[in-house]
Amino acid sequence: MFDIYTIIFLALAVFIFLRLRSVLGQRTGRERPPYDPYAARDARAQGGDKVVALPNRKPEAAARPSESVEATERWKGVAEKGSPIAAGLDAVAESDKGFDANHFIAGARAAYEMIVGAFAAGDRRTLKNLLAREVFDGFDAAIRERETKGETIESRFVSLETAEIIGAEMRGTTAQITVRFVSQLITATRDKSGNVVEGNPDKVTDVTDVWTFARDLTSRDPNWKLVATEAGQ
């Protein structure tokens, strides 16, 4: 004869079984086998010619300038054959096998716009990443003077007409490339009362700048930094 405790334990056992069944489910024979990372690896290894290469992946040699390319084509549109600029670019490319003049110019154009905009906005953080220490100190001093006077600069790019390499050389392990920028800007400096003290907020101004960028080719840092600036003619 079952006493009250036996009945309670039986009821509890049935309840636990039903709960486990609802949580774990029932096997139907259609379950997917557990993932085996080693089997997947072996399948890839045995795939042979079915392995898909990553996009944009090129053999190392393809990333380097072809030694068979004639000098007249190597810097086409950038520097004339036999010119000092071409010789300087040859020296840079000899030390940096992945150097591409057109890519450099595109990067220089982007840097020019960023630096001009950051200087006008007083964005020291952006400037510090793009300028050599000495150049940054000069920009920072100009920003501090402006802040002390309560002045602000309004600057807007209309267009960046040209960006051309006018000099290139190796100084030890450091490559230096000089670029002449010709741009059109609208710029005006206002005092703390909002009065224009320099420039014209309604006039487009032609601006020519000559900037020199440098990079130590032995460094892991791939970025070029602005090391010198001057007004161009």
Please characterize this protein's 3D structure.
- With 233 residues, this protein is an alpha+beta fold.
- The chain has a domain at 71-231: Nuclear Transport Factor 2, Chain: A, CATH 3.10.450.240.
- The chain has seven helices and five strands.
- The chain has helices spanning 4-24, 37-45, 71-74, 84-95, 101-121, 124-130, 133-149; strands spanning 152-171, 174-190, 196-199, 205-216, 225-231.
- Strands 1, 2, 3, 4 and 5 form a five-stranded antiparallel sheet that branches.
- The longest helix is centred in the first third of the chain and has 21 residues, at 4-24.
- The radius of gyration is 33 Å and the shape is globular.
- The model is unreliable at 4-10 and 12-63 (pLDDT under 50).
Short key terms for the protein model shown above:
7 helices; five-stranded antiparallel beta sheet; globular
